[in-house]
């Protein structure tokens, strides 16, 4: 039975990965969450699906993810077919600052937190589950990044905000390339993907969010004039990502692609 572990599974894209993968009866799905208090929907889903296991582990805590991997190993007999690094951090209140306007009292804090979760957290989690992946049949690691971490794309579109998040995503792209180079001979596929511009809001957007999306849409439309201008829903984004994951081979290992399988970020 194919087995999958997904970090950041409490809601949004991570929850949708669990939902879609667990809908296939042959799959065993492990949803890793940082806090039980925000994972009500996931626990509700797990109640009605015997192939879902919910584990608590903060990806920034290396010991916690090692313990989660050990729990997975007990259930699977020491194997895992696919790890999906979905958990991420974005400082929402400060996301519209540019580096030259970023308040100094928050800059180091936000840079460090972004790296702690988006870079070190991915490394901790990948290292913890690698021994299981090596024993699996699929041997795939999918890490969610962002078009905000693509140097050429950001330059072309002209997005100048969300610096700490963007820098950390550019860094994790390189992290996955390093893993790909290290484990190529073992046939492990490391793929980095941008899920697209996805609507993960719970409830209607605030006026500030509406204004922000309007400005972003104008920037994106200049580069992608045929884009509909509408964010993807998690269901569609995850479906597209899983299609790319399924057909990825060792030749693709280390690549950073969009949910379209290329460099089109929306």
TrEMBL record:
The lineage of its organism: Eukaryota, Fungi, Dikarya, Basidiomycota, Agaricomycotina. InterPro entries: NAD(P)-bd_dom_sf, Sc_DH/Rdtase_CS, SDR_enzymes, SDR_fam. The keyword DNA-binding does not apply. The keyword NADP applies. GO terms for molecular function: oxidoreductase activity, acting on the CH-OH group of donors, NAD or NADP as acceptor. It comes from Daedalea quercina L-15889. Signal peptide: none annotated. This is NAD(P)-binding protein. Pfam families: adh_short. Keywords: NADP.
């Amino acid at each position: 039975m194919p087995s999958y572990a997904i970090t950041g599974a409490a809601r949004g894209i991570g929850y949708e990965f669990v939902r879609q993968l667990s809908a296939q009866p042959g799959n065993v799905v492990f949803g890793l969450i940082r806090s039980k208090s925000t994972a009500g929907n996931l626990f509700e889903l797990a109640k009605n699906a015997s192939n879902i296991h919910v584990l608590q582990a903060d990806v920034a805590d290396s010991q916690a993810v090692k313990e989660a991997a050990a729990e997975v190993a007990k259930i699977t007999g020491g194997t895992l077919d696919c790890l999906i690094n979905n958990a991420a951090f974005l400082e929402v209140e400060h996301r519209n600052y540019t580096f030259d306007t970023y308040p100094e009292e928050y800059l180091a804090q936000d840079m460090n937190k972004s790296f702690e979760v988006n870079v070190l957290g991915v490394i901790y989690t990948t290292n913890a589950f690698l021994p299981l992946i090596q024993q699996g049949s699929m041997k795939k690691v999918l890490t969610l990044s962002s078009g905000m971490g693509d140097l050429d794309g950001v330059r072309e579109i002209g997005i100048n905000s969300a610096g700490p998040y963007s820098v950390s995503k550019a860094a994790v792209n390189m992290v996955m390339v390093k893993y790909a180079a290290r484990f190529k001979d073992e046939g492990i596929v490391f793929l980095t993907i941008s899920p697209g511009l996805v609507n993960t809001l719970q409830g209607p957007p605030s006026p500030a969010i509406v204004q922000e999306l309007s400005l972003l849409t104008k920037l994106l439309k200049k580069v992608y004039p045929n884009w509909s201008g509408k964010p993807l829903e998690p269901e569609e984004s995850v479906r597209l990502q899983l299609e790319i994951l399924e057909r990825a081979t060792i030749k693709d290992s280390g690549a950073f692609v969009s949910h379209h399988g290329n460099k089109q970020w929306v």
